[in-house]
Amino acid sequence: MRFRFVVDGTAYSKHKDAFKGILRRHGLAFRGTRETFVWSSRSESVTALYERDEEHDVTLKAELVWQSRKKTPLLNELKEWVWSVGGRGGESEDEGAAPDASEAVNRELAVWDAVHRPDAERLRAEGRPEAWIEKDMKAWKRKRAEKKRELTGRLQPG
After folding, report:
1. Considering the chain, what is the average pLDDT of its residues?
2. Which of these, 23, 35, 112, 129, is most buried using a 10 Å CB contact count?
3. 2-91: CATH homologous superfamily?
4. Domain residue limits, the chain
5. Residue 34 burial (CB < 10 Å; 0-12/13-18/19+)?
6. In what helix (H) or strand (E) does residue 128 lie, and over which residues does it extend?
7. What pLDDT score does 35 carry?
8. For residues 147 and 112, is the Cβ–Cβ distance under 8 A?
9. Residue 131: is its pLDDT beyond 80?
10. Per-residue DSSP letter, 7
């Protein structure tokens, strides 16, 4: 289930502390990056997409996407907050993954790979046995698949 809300950038900027307070009260933690803004818990998530005027350093529009398997108290409080600051929105027709969600998963995996992928060429140059390198690569692939499932579940709840 997905609800999409749009809030004017000025109103969002003025009331964003209240928005973040709502997320904290309901146990959502920030799990995003500098490009992808995601707050999530085990059962729900809120993704924010901002339209910004970088030249004037202002937010023009904030699009908030709440996702979960069922309606929750967070959704009700989020709706109330959005409408109180002059925003609009409702249930999204598109039940598939958010278009930026798979992109977000791929970005997160790229960072994870940069840290965790074994450098086979360096290991060979250092004299590590080929069987050990293969074992390291298999373990990395298994852990990567687990990480991808985790990220997909967190960034694309369905």
Report:
1. 87
2. 23
3. Kinase associated domain 1, KA1 (3.30.310.80)
4. 2-91, 99-155
5. exposed
6. none
7. 75
8. yes
9. yes
10. E
